[in-house]
Model the fold of this input.
Amino acid sequence: MSCLTRKLQQKLTRYVQKNSAHFSSTDPECIREELVNKGVCPSDVTTDQLKVIIKDAAVS
Done:
């Protein structure tokens, strides 16, 4: 499991909140791939971790 710091999680949550309309899919795996390809998210962040980030972004 990768080390997802609190600061990185907060940055990714804000990015997902601001850019959620630009994702081509709602599938967390696809969103993770898009974020990794854009260089926004490290490749060792897991899909499960991204699910938590997406959930936090939707609640905030």
